[in-house]
Design brief:
Number of helices: 2
Number of domains: 2
Helix content: over 70%
Radius of gyration: 46 Å
Strand content: under 5%
Largest sheet: none
Structural class: mainly alpha
Order of helices and strands: HH
Length: 110
């Protein structure tokens, strides 16, 4: 009977070892698949983040360029006071020209 018990224990031990080896192999395969999946997903996320960062940098660059252009345009615009002064000067010159033309016409008529 002891030999039967030893054989039974050996058979059970062998069955447990084989089952454990199969379960370990299955777990390793499953973990390798999960790792592969998450590495692929991580690459996708990193690529998306890089594209988003590049797009953001381009947008920031475009906004800075637009801002510089607008500042340049504003800096080159004439102030209202300068425009009024120029208008007054042009009106005075126009009056001078009209007076000179009138004087010239009067001189010609004499």
């Amino acid at each position: 009977r002891a030999a039967k018990d030893v054989d039974a224990v050996e058979a059970e031990t062998k069955r447990v070892v084989v089952a454990a080896a199969a379960e370990t192999a299955f777990s390793k395969t499953a973990l390798a698949d999960l790792r592969s999946f998450y590495e692929t997903e991580l690459l996708k996320v990193k690529e998306h983040a890089k594209r988003a960062q590049n797009a953001s940098e381009k947008r920031i660059e475009a906004v800075l360029d637009e801002n510089a252009t607008l500042r340049s345009m504003l800096a080159s615009r004439m102030t209202l006071e300068a425009a009024e002064e120029m208008k007054t000067e042009l009106a005075a010159r126009l009056d001078e020209c009209a007076a000179a033309a009138e004087a010239s016409s009067a001189e010609t008529r004499r």
